[in-house]
Specification:
The chain contains one helix and ten strands, in the order βαβββββββββ. By secondary structure, the protein is mainly beta. The chain has a single domain, classed as Jelly Rolls. The two termini are 26 Å apart.
């Protein structure tokens, strides 16, 4: 059985010009298709997420330059798992439907995320459901 959340480090292929990261093909295979892309910043001390999607698959690229935490919980679990990160780099997070998730910026620098989803958000048929983890 596949894990509801998978977290992977992205290799920095940058040089003297700056950091550079590529999204591996397996991410697009997981999504099947990309119907929505969302970009956001998370200010120091702030949390984004604290929700789950009933049917939508999501992949988040987290580009960081300081400390942050990712919390998640599958539909079958009652305890929140939390993984802490520090330094700088980029991580990719695959999130299956019904896996609650949240990101907290515990550092002093702005945290940036890009989220890819296999379905578009539709305010007439919401797929996002609140679940506080962090």
């Amino acid at each position: 059985m596949r894990e509801s959340v998978r977290i992977k480090d992205l290799e920095n292929r940058g040089d003297e010009r700056g950091e550079s990261f590529s999204i591996p093909q397996e991410i697009f295979d997981f999504l099947g298709n990309v119907d929505e892309v969302h970009m956001a910043e998370i200010e120091p001390g702030a949390v984004r997420g604290n929700h789950y999607h009933k049917s939508k698959k999501e992949v988040m690229v987290v580009w960081y330059a300081d400390n942050w935490s990712f919390g998640w919980q599958s539909a079958e679990e009652t305890k929140t798992k939390v993984k802490d990160f520090n330094g700088r780099g980029a991580m990719i997070v695959e999130i299956a439907p019904e896996a609650a998730h949240a990101i907290k910026n515990s550092g002093d620098e702005i945290l940036r995320i890009i989220a890819f989803s296999d379905k578009r958000s539709d305010p007439r048929q919401p797929d996002t459901h609140r679940k506080v983890l962090l």
